[in-house]
Amino acid sequence: MKVGDAYRCPDNHWARIVWISENGKLIGVKCAQKHFSKMTRVADLTKSRVSPGRYPSRDKKVFVRNLVFLMSVVPTEKTL
Ligand SMILES: [Zn+2]
Q1: Cα 42 to ligand 1 centre (Å)
Q2: pLDDT greater than 90 at residue 30
Q3: What own/partner pairs with CB < 8 Å and gap ≥ 24 does 10-15 have?
Q4: pLDDT at 55
Q5: Measured on CA atoms in the order 20, 11, 7, 34, is the torsion positive or negative?
Q6: How far, in Å, is the centroid of ligand 1 from the Cα of 29?
Q7: Half-sphere exposure of 17 (CA within 13 A, CB side)
Q8: Which residues pair with 60 in a beta bridge?
Q9: Residue 1 and residue 23 in contact, taking contact as beta carbons nearer than 8 Å
């Protein structure tokens, strides 16, 4: 395993290893796919205003790309 290798991100996309810790137990995996980040409230402009200057709000899912995940590597051999 080395930097640049393909690896599965937690959402099961193919991603790239961008960092490996010195002891090899932690890796950073950067995935170019979209990942759900959080819910946020935004003004819903498709509905009529409740009152002047106020719009109804709705929940919107926020997705981000190119997240880097820190993942622990499951050892293939027992070190004990
Ligand atoms: Zn992913």
Answers
A1: 25
A2: yes
A3: 10/69, 10/71, 11/35, 15/69
A4: 83
A5: negative
A6: 9
A7: 17
A8: 40
A9: no
- Distance (Å) from CA 35 to ligand 1 centroid: 6
Output the CA 32–ligand 1 centroid distance in Å.
Answer: 7
Averaged pLDDT score across all residues of the chain? 90
Q: Mean of the pLDDT values across residues 32-42?
A: 95
Distance from residue 71's CA to the centre of ligand 1 (Å):
12
pLDDT of residue 63: 95
Instruction: Locate 79 and state its tokens.
Output: 């070190």
Cα 76 to averaged position of ligand 1 atoms, centre (Å): 23
Distance (angstroms) between ligand 1 centre and the Cα of 45 equals: 31
Burial class (CB in 10 A: 0-12, 13-18, 19+), 31: buried
Q: Rounded to two decimals, what is the model's pTM?
A: 0.71
CA 30 to ligand 1 center in whole angstroms? 8
